[in-house]
Amino acid sequence: MVDELVLLLHALLMRHRALSIENSQLMEQLRLLVCERATLLRQVRPPSCPVPFPETFSGESSRLPEFIVQTASYMLVNENRFCNDAMKVAFLISLLTGEAEEWVVPYIEMDSPILGDYRAFLDEMKQCFGWDDDEEDDDDEEEDDY
Fold first, then answer.
1. Stretch among 14-28, 47-61, 73-87 having the lowest mean pLDDT
2. What's the pTM?
3. What is the rounded CA–CA span in Å between residue 91 and residue 72?
C-alpha cells in the first residue's frame, strides 16, 4: 500500500513538473504574442481616431503621468476594443518596454489577479515607478488655500 502511494506521488510530481514547464512555455508564447500585437497595432492605426496611438513606456517616472493619460484617452475613444479591465491591462502591457516590461513579467508568470483589474494595475505602476498620489493631493490642498 505504501509503495503504491509512493509511486502515485512520484507520478503526480512528474506530471506537475511537466505541466509547470508547459505553463512556462505558454507564458513565454503569450508574452511574445502580446509584443507582436503591440507592434501590429502601431502599424495599423484607425484613420478616424482623433487620439494618437500612445507611446511606449520604459519606466521613466517623469513619463508615467503622460503615459497614463495617453493610454486612457486612447482607450476611451476606442472603448469598443477595451470592453473590460483585462483588455485594458493587456493594452498597457503591450506598450511596456525596458525596465517597465521587466517589472510586469513576474505578474504574468504568476497569472496575478492584478492583470484583470485596471485600477489595481495602475496603482501598482504608480507605486513602482514613482507617482505619489499623496504629493498630488498635497499640491491640490495648497492650491485650495490660495
1. 47-61
2. 0.60
3. 10
130: left (phi over 0), alpha (psi -120 to 50) or beta: left
Cα 16 to its chain centre, rounded Å, is 27
Instruction: Report whether 78 contacts 49 (CB < 8 A).
Output: yes
Q: What pLDDT does 140 receive? A: 47
Joined together, the cell numbers standing for residue 136 give: 498630488
Strand, helix or coil for residue 74: helix
Element spanning 127, H or E: helix 118-129
Closest to 89 in 3D by CA, of 59, 122, 63, 65: 122
> For residue 48, what are the contacts with CB-CB under 8 A and spacing of at least 6?
none
Average pLDDT over residues 140-145: 45
Grouping H, G, I as helix, E, B as strand and the rest as coil, residue 96 is strand
Contact 38, 94 (CB under 8 A): yes
122: nearest Cα among 54, 71, 47, 55: 71
Q: Residue 38: which of 3, 74, 4, 76 has the closest Cα?
A: 74
Lowest mean pLDDT: which of 5-14, 28-37, 75-84?
28-37
How many whole angstroms separate alpha carbon 21 and alpha carbon 29? Answer: 12
